[in-house]
Amino acid sequence: MSTEIRVPQLPESVADATLVTWHKQPGDAIRRDENLADLETDKVVLEVPAPANGVVRQILVQSGTVVRSGQVLAVIEEGGAAAASTAAPTAAIAATAASAATVAAAAKPASPARSAAGIAESGAGRDSGKLSPSVRRLVEENHLDPAAIPASGRDGRLTKADVVDYLGRQPAERARAATAQVPAAAPASPAAAPAAAPSPASPPTARAPAPRLPVTGARAEQRVPMTRLRARIAQRLIEAQSTQALLTTFNEVDLTATQELRTRHRARFEKEHGVKLGFMSFFVKAAVEALKKFPVVNAAVDGNDIVYHEYYDVGVAVSTDRGLMVPIVRDADGKSFATIEKEVADYARKAREGSIAIEDLTGGTFTITNGGVFGSLMSTPIVNAPQSAILGMHKVQERPMVVNGQIAVRPMMYLAVTYDHRIIDGREAVQFLVAIKDALEDPGRMLLGI
After folding, report:
1. 117, 153, 415, 427: least buried by Cβ within 10 Å?
2. Rounded CA gap, 214 and 180, in Å?
3. Is 321 an active-site residue?
4. Tens digit of pLDDT for each residue in 158-210?
5. Distance CA 127, CA 124 (A)
6. How far apart are CA 391 and CA 38, in angstroms?
C-alpha cells in the first residue's frame, strides 16, 4: 500500500519551512519512526518520521525547497517484506562499493580521495558513541568525517544542527578548495621561448618601471545563503528598530552579597537539586520583582492599545551556532531558584543540540541577555519585539569602589535596559533598573518579599 509523506502541521507562528536534507533516496528501506528528512523553520529544525515500515518509492520535493503544512514530500510503499527485499540488494551494493574502495586504495595509496570506509575510520577522532542516531545517519549518508565538523553540543557532542550547517557550507568550501588547487602557470621553457638578450650594439633605453609584485596569500571569497533562523533574526531586529522608539539606560551593581550567597550554599544546592547555582536565577528573580513594581515594563504595544501582562514569562537569550534563540521561562514568579536554573540549563542544551521545540520559543513578556559570558563589558541590547524592554547583563569585573568612605575592591557588573520609549518613560526605566540593582545587592530581600 502506498502512503504519502506530508509536511507535519506547522505551528500558527510558522508559515512555511525549508526542506534541508533527505536521509533516504528512492529504493531505500525505511523503518517506522525513522527520520526521512529535516525541515528547517525560522526557529527550529523539525524531523519528518516514517509512519510505517516500507520502501521509499518517490521523492517529490528536492532539498532547498520551501514547503508548507500538509504538502506531499514523498511516497513510500508500506510492508515489511518490501523493506527486507530492498535491504538485501542495498547491503550487497554497499559491500561491492566497499570492496571496490579497498582495491582502489591498494592500487593508489597516495590518492587524496577518501573512501566511505576511510571516512568511518577517521571518525574515531570523535567518539562515535557520542553521536545520536539521527546525527550518525546524517554523517554516514553524506560520507562526512565527524572529526572535521565543529561540534557545539554539550561535552563536545556533535548535533544535527552542526551537520546541517556544515552541509550548507560545503559547496562554498569545495569551490574555494578548487580555486586553491588550480596550478600556477608554468614558466616557458628555454627551448620554447629563448630569452632575447640585448645586443651589445643596441642603444641604451630607459629603465622600465618595476613590475607590481603579485598579491600572495589566500584571497578567496564565499557566498553562503542565510539560514532561515538567521534571516528571521535579521528581520526581527530591523522591525524592532524601525517600529519602536528604543532608548537604553545604564547602571552598575555590586555583586558582593550575591557572590557570597552563592559561594556559601553552592555545594549543598547542587547536591540537593542536581544543578549548579548560577547567576541567571538571581537575575530572573530580581527582574520579576522589578516588573511587579513597574508593570508597564512588562507590557506591550498593540496598535493604539497597551497590553499589560499579569504574568511573567521571562525569555533567556541563548547563543547557538545557528543563531540566537530565546527560550521562555514561563510563570517565573512562581518558580524556585532551582527550577529556574534547571529550565535555563535544559533550554540551553536543547537549543545547542537543535532539539528545542517551537513552543519553548513562543511568547515571552520580558527578556534577559547575558553578553558577559563572551567578555562584553557594556552593550545596548535590542528589544525582542513585541516586548517593550530587555535587560542586558555584562562581565563581572573587580574594580575599586568607595564603600563607606573607604576604597574597596568589589565585583561589579554594568547593567543595561533598552526600552520602548513610546510607553515607558525614562523615570520608570531608571527606577526599574535601580530596583534590579537593589535586589541583587541584597538578595535576601527577594526571599522575604521586601
Report:
1. 427
2. 16
3. no
4. 877 777 778 777 655 545 544 554 454 444 444 444 444 444 444 555 555 65
5. 6
6. 34
Contact 79, 53 (CB under 8 A): yes
Please tell me the distance from the alpha carbon of residue 48 to that of residue 55, in angstroms, as a whole number. 15
Rounded to an integer, what is the distance from CA 371 to the centroid of its chain? Answer: 16
Which residues lie below 8 Å from residue 41, measured CB to CB, with a gap of 6+? 10, 14, 16, 17, 18, 228, 229, 358
Per-residue exposure over 353-383, b if at least 16 CB sit within 10 Å of its own CB, e if not: bbbbebebbbebbbbbbbbbeeebebbebbb
Q: What is the pLDDT of residues 381-392, one digit of tens each?
A: 999 999 999 999
Task: Kindly report the number of other CB atoms within 10 A of residue 144's CB atom.
Answer: 18
> Per the residue annotation, which of 33, 331, 425, 442 is the catalytic one?
425
| CA-angle at 343, arms to 337 and 344, nearest 5° | 90
**Domains defined along the chain, listed by start:** 2-82 (2.40.50.100), 121-177 (4.10.320.10), 231-448 (3.30.559.10)
**Minimal CA–CA distance to 251: which of 418, 408, 400, 402?**
418
3-state secondary structure the chain: CEEEEECCCCCCCCCCEEEEEECCCCCCEECCCCEEEEEECCCCEEEEECCCCEEEEEECCCCCCEECCCCEEEEEEECHHHHHHHHHHHHHHHHHHHHHHHHHHHHCCCCCCCCHHHHHHHHHHCCHHHCCHHHHHHHHHCCCCHHHCCCCCHHHCCCHHHHHHHHHHHHHHHHHHHHHHCCCCCCCCCCCCCCCCCCCCCCCCCCCCCCCCCCCCCCCCCCCCCCHHHHHHHHHHHHHHHHCCEEEEEEEEECHHHHHHHHHHHHHHHHHHCCCCCCHHHHHHHHHHHHHHCHHHHEEEECCEEEECCCCCEEECEEECCEEECCEECCHHHCCHHHHHHHHHHHHHHHHHCCCCHHHHCCCCEEEEEHHHHCCCCCCCCCCCCECEEEEECCCEEEEEEECCEEEEEEEEEEEEEEECCCCCHHHHHHHHHHHHHHHHCCHHHHHCC
- Alpha-carbon distance of 343 to 70, in angstroms, equals 33
Of the two residues 101 and 334, the one the predictor is more confident about is 334
pLDDT at 171: 58
Task: Name the residue type at position 67.
Answer: V
Residue 143 annotated among the catalytic residues of the structure: no
The one catalytic residue in 28, 333, 421, 438 is 421
Per-residue pLDDT for 101 more than 50? no
